[in-house]
Amino acid sequence: MEHVDVLIVGAGLSGIGAAYHLKKHSPDRSFVIFEGRDDIGGTWDLFRYPGIRSDSDMFTLGYAFKPWSEGKAIADGPSILKYINETAAENDIPERIRFRHWVKRATWEEDHWLVEAETDDGTVSISCNFLLMCSGYYNYEHGYTPEFEGRDKFNGPIIHPQQWPEDLEYADKKVLVIGSGATAMTIVPEMSHTASHVTMLQRSPTYVVSMPSENRLANWLRQYSENLSYFVSRWKSVIFGWLFFTYSRKRPEKMKQWLVGGVRQALGPDYDVEKHFTPNYNPWDQRICLVPDADLFEAIRGGKVSVVTDHIESFTENGVLLKSGEHLDADVIVTATGLDIKIAGGIDLVIDGRSVDVPNAMTYKGMMLEDVPNAAIVMGYTNASYTLKADLTSTFVCRLLNYMRRHHYASCRPRNHDESIEKEPIINFTSGYIQRAIDKLPKQGSKSPWRLYQNYFLDLVTLGYGSIADSMMEFSRSKSQDESLQRKAAG
């Protein structure tokens, strides 16, 4: 059976980043990447809906080790996919990738994992010392769509953004987009360029903020130094984002006034901002939606887009009937209703003949699961760019692997020895996709290292430079290692 030191699951943004870190910081480790799809890119290869783009700037969504050199900081999907592929090619990573390998099960056997993956030719097995899961947090096979009454009555196409057909024709047609999250905020202004009209239907408002798609400071500095431009712009974005989030938590009413005031200024005094853009929750109780260059507001002002806040009674042959009695005509309906959460690709982790109860396990430093050896899950921040945490996680894993090799350890296992630590939900967001999946997600603890602080500065210190060996991490040697060390000691 083939054996590698590290098996990376997933060749998306975080998986390619993990491969880079292994090659740079742990070059003596062998590794391969199992990717279930046909290509590199993960999210940025999967989603093909109109206007697909980042919902944060590329100075923080990009890797710490590779400057983002494009003019736009809020980048479109194809540009991000190109960036990921460039990173992979520059570091000879594609030769390590096995495409169309869907990891289904991993069984722990003393000092290694026995991993089973489905391929087009059947099941294959591989063993590895460490399992690094970089497959994201949602189901790639399908998104989430509620059960809509009368859905079968509608005569036109009903599309979920995760399964966007290449041949969908919507020019000069009435489009109804259900939802008001980041995906809807992207699709609506983009489709309005050719559709006769686009209506965004939401049950409740979302906080929305406009940001220039280009970073003038970065573009100006780039003429002097690419690396300097990226360094300055990255830290500027990190610090601003942290201040924005912290102020939102400490002064939610002030932040709410500022956010809603910005929308009111963009749409004018006659628009009903109170109804359509004033949420009943505090900023950062859910993610704040970003619209580049105020494109959504421009489309609304130009009459190409309407926002309706109401609940659906049922679908009809030519649209949707609302509970208020209003009918929205539509030729095409897009259900931008969210993701179906699936942690670590739904891999069945088996220890001592039993599947790990992931929803009941606490996360150690936001990456490893309680009582699960030699395995880490890359999970990004909820209040900042995903890649910021992904980079730190990969860095820590390399430090951990190097520590184990120096001290001749075969396994590491986080274990809680503090009975006073209480389990809590891992995320305190009120977003629908989080609340639907709260029973699927692992827990966090009430104290470090089991607590998730969602703080890049703290994680930068603890994961990048903090001690590897702490009271909650147990290290052990295999029988063969013990015997080898005993022989050396004997002489």
CATH fold label of the largest domain:
FAD/NAD(P)-binding domain
Main β-sheet description:
9 strands, mixed
Per DSSP E runs of 2 or more residues, the count of β-strands stands at 25
Low-pLDDT sequence parts: none
Global outline: globular
Multimeric state: single chain
CATH class term of the largest domain: Alpha Beta
- CATH architecture field of the largest domain: 3-Layer(bba) Sandwich
How widely separated are the two ends?
Answer: 34 Å
Provide the residue-averaged pLDDT.
Answer: 94
How many separate structural domains? 2
Structural class, from secondary structure content?
alpha/beta
What does this structure look like?
Helix content is 31%, strand content 23%. It has 491 residues and is an alpha/beta fold. The protein has 2 domains: 3-140 and 340-490, FAD/NAD(P)-binding domain, CATH 3.50.50; 151-335, FAD/NAD(P)-binding domain (3-Layer(bba) Sandwich), CATH 3.50.50.60. Strand 13 (312-316) and strand 14 (319-322) form a beta hairpin. Helix 1 (13-25) packs parallel to helix 11 (386-406) and helix 5 crosses helix 10 (295-301). The longest helix is centred in the middle third of the chain and has 25 residues, at 226-250. The protein starts with a strand and ends with a helix. The model has no long low-confidence stretch (mean pLDDT 94).
